[in-house]
From TrEMBL, chain A:
Heterotetramer of 2 MoaD subunits and 2 MoaE subunits. Also stable as homodimer. The enzyme changes between these two forms during catalysis. Its EC number is 2.8.1.12. Keywords: Molybdenum cofactor biosynthesis. It catalyses: 2 [molybdopterin-synthase sulfur-carrier protein]-C-terminal-Gly-aminoethanethioate + cyclic pyranopterin phosphate + H2O = molybdopterin + 2 [molybdopterin-synthase sulfur-carrier protein]-C-terminal Gly-Gly + 2 H(+). GO terms for molecular function: molybdopterin synthase activity. GO terms for biological process: Mo-molybdopterin cofactor biosynthetic process. This is Molybdopterin synthase catalytic subunit. Pathway: Cofactor biosynthesis; molybdopterin biosynthesis. It comes from the Bacteria. Belongs to the MoaE family.
UniProtKB/TrEMBL annotation, chain B:
This is Molybdopterin synthase sulfur carrier subunit. Keywords: Nucleotide-binding. One of its GO terms (biological process) is Mo-molybdopterin cofactor biosynthetic process. PANTHER family: MOLYBDOPTERIN SYNTHASE SULFUR CARRIER SUBUNIT. Belongs to the MoaD family. The lineage of its organism: Bacteria, Pseudomonadati, Pseudomonadota, Gammaproteobacteria, Thiotrichales. One of its GO terms (molecular function) is nucleotide binding.
Length: 147, 77
């Protein structure tokens, strides 16, 4: 079971996770391990106070690229299920940006696959952040922070 | 069939357009697509490229009817 959701509306990751698990994984007795990552917008970047962000993406390619990453990870680590939810549009500090969750038989595969999915997403999924600073400056984020 | 060219994020703002149609009956190199659509001669090393929504390298050929996108390094998550 694999699911990718690129959405403009805010979401509550733990509720999303609970709902999806209840609806899509009613009998996941195979899965001894669940690993979850939630990325949230912080109110600073590179030493500056950040008050808001706009997240642009490439409609179509984004969903396609995320589905490819999920399919590759699912095969490499024999995952039972994988879920990626990602915000686009206007985002405010403390709002969740991304949710990655994977289910597998054992913890090593779950930890490794979750981290791999998050890192490959950050480096290959076509999203671009444009942030607004507290002094009104608007700038594009031109690189990812180190893990 | 024209080649559809898309620009995203900071690259779109630098080039000054989000989309362009290139009329052609023959395949073009990505270098030619870049020059004809952006008006810039040199394709910067840090620009990423996709054809029909799949990543490609700068040596790829583009067919009439293809959708090409140029964009800066990605910053999601």
């Amino acid at each position: 079971m694999q699911h990718v959701d690129v959405r403009e509306m805010p979401f509550e990751p733990w509720q999303y996770l609970a709902d999806w698990q209840a609806q899509q994984l009613p009998e996941n007795a195979r899965s001894g391990a669940t690993a979850v990552f939630v990325g949230t917008m912080r109110d600073f970047n590179e030493g500056d106070d950040v008050t808001g962000m706009y997240l642009e993406h490439y409609p179509g390619m984004t969903e396609r690229q995320l589905a490819t990453l999920v399919a590759e990870a699912s095969q490499r680590w024999s995952l039972d299920a994988a879920l990626v939810v990602h915000r686009v549009g206007e985002i405010l500090p403390t709002q969740p940006i991304v949710l990655v969750a994977v289910w597998s038989a054992h913890r090593a595969a779950a930890f490794e696959a979750c981290r791999h999915l998050m890192e490959t997403l950050k480096h290959t999924a076509p999203f671009w952040k444009r942030e607004t600073l507290s002094n009104g400056t608007v700038r594009w984020v031109d690189r990812n922070t180190l893990g | 069939m024209p080649i559809k060219v898309l620009f995203f994020a900071s690259l779109r703002e630098r080039i000054g357009q989000s989309q362009r149609l290139l009329e052609t009956d023959t395949p073009l190199t990505l270098q030619e697509v870049w020059q004809r659509s952006s008006g810039e001669t040199h394709l910067p090393d840090n620009v990423l490229m996709s054809v029909n929504q799949t990543y490609v390298d700068a040596n790829s050929l583009v067919q009439p009817g293809d959708e090409v996108a140029f964009f800066p390094p990605v910053t999601g998550g």
